[in-house]
Amino acid sequence: MGRHCIAVIGGDGIGPEVVAEGLKCLRALSAVEEELEFEFREFPFNCQYYLEHGRMMPPDGLEQLGACEAIYLGGIGSPGEVPDEISLRETVLAIRFHFQQYANVRPCRPLAGAAFPLTTCRPEEIDFVVVREATEGLYAGIGGRYHPGDAKFDELAARVPAVRSSREVAVQAGVYTETGIRRVCRYAFELARRRQGRKLVTNCTKTNAMNYGMVFWDEIFTEVAADYPDIEHERRYVDALAMQMVLDPTRYDVIVAPNLFGDIITDITAALQGGLGMAPGANIAPGGISMFEPPHGTAPDIAGRGTANPLAAILTAELMLRELGEAHAAERLHDAVAKVVEARQVRTPDLGGSASCGEVGDAVVAALGGLV
Ligand code: IPM
Ligand code: MG
Fold first, then answer.
1. For the CA atoms of 110, 112, 117, 120, what is the dihedral angle to 10 degrees?
2. Looking at the predicted structure, is the pLDDT value of residue 230 above 90?
3. Are 171 and 125 in contact (CB under 8 A)?
4. Does ligand 1 come within 6 angstroms of the Cβ of 263?
5. Thinking of the domain 1-99+298-372, which architecture would CATH place it in?
6. How many CB atoms lie within 10 A of CB 260?
7. By alpha-carbon position, which residue is closest to atom 12 of ligand 1?
8. Phi/psi class of residue 77: alpha, beta or left (left: φ > 0; alpha: ψ in -120 to 50)?
9. What does pTM read for this prediction?
């Protein structure tokens, strides 16, 4: 309980629209919950900022964010204006890396009333969490582009036959540190211990094809697993796991995955929840400054129309409340969202309705018992 200073980055596209609804819900909660207060500090870090300043945030941007307790972010990216590999790397990825937000936590708890794509099980039978490593792996930004004549090019040509006939070759390396693997695996096992689930951690790798990084990852995972005899563990290659997440998602509890695999499979978890508009996410830096960010991105095609679904951002605010130690408020917010979704009355177009982003936010506030 207390006053929480939150850095708010609306970002681009639908980001500011959905974040506004999240903030609306947090303000409503603070009005009805005793001793729950927020100070929201807004930061204009987005592609517009880049167009004006040639960078996504000021040189001390990370420091400014670090003065707050947590970061709430809508989405970054305006592909027509700034290349994604610049806008995302200078904001989202820079923040994840700088604050060591190594546990990207994406729960999959489909709500009754949301679109559900499977016929083989019911939404309420599904309750698992993906813990995605978020500070290294294939996102590390290590590599280069080489032409014939570069020393690196010749070295690669000796190993990979196709390189010999190329005019240019790119290398994107994955970085897997012992520290990085151990801490995220440990986080996954601790989470499995806290949850009232199957007490099962599924290790998502691709050791059959990636003979260094994934072999190392598996070794560390197995070492960590030995410290948790009360938690079952298993290994699934990412391809097989992707299939099983569709065929029988009910069997999972906690899935731990390297960065890129985690990114891919969490779009499957979004689909199970009714689409990207329903899926929350958090980048957790245990004991540090975490960032709460729905995985849906900026959806430029629908930006500015007021039709974006704010529920992913609102459920993301719920994750933030939990991490801030505000479990009661978090539960209340979850119940309010569940009520709105189940009633099927106020829904944005992605869920088959015609309500606006703001109307959905208002409906959640009303369900919280607050005044719009
Ligand atoms: C996500 C997104 C980001 C990621 C992009 C926008 C860099 O897809 O959060 O899932 O890959 O991490
Ligand atoms: Mg993604």
1. 90
2. yes
3. no
4. yes
5. 3-Layer(aba) Sandwich (3.40)
6. 17
7. 263
8. left
9. 0.96
Q: Does domain 115-136+176-272 have CATH number 3.40.50?
A: yes
Question: Does 88 contact ligand 1 (Cβ within 6 A)?
Answer: yes
At residue 1, the pLDDT reads: 59
Three-state secondary-structure class, residue 206: coil
CA of 371 to the centre of ligand 2 (A): 35
Confirm or reject: Cβ of 75 under 6 Å from ligand 1: no
Instruction: Please identify, by atom number, the ligand 1 atom nearest to the C-alpha of residue 297.
Output: 6
Q: Which ligand has the minimum distance to the alpha carbon of residue 297? A: 1
Closest to 70 (Cα-Cα) out of 108, 109, 43: 43
Closest CA to 336 of 349, 346, 325: 346
Q: Say what the pLDDT of residue 371 is.
A: 60
Per-residue pLDDT band at 372 (split at 50, 70, 90)? low
pLDDT of residue 121: 96
Cβ atoms within 10 A of the Cβ of 211, count? Answer: 9
| Average pLDDT estimate for 92-110 | 98
Q: How far apart are CA 73 and CA 347, in angstroms?
A: 23
For the chain, what are the domain ranges?
1-99+298-372, 115-136+176-272, 143-171
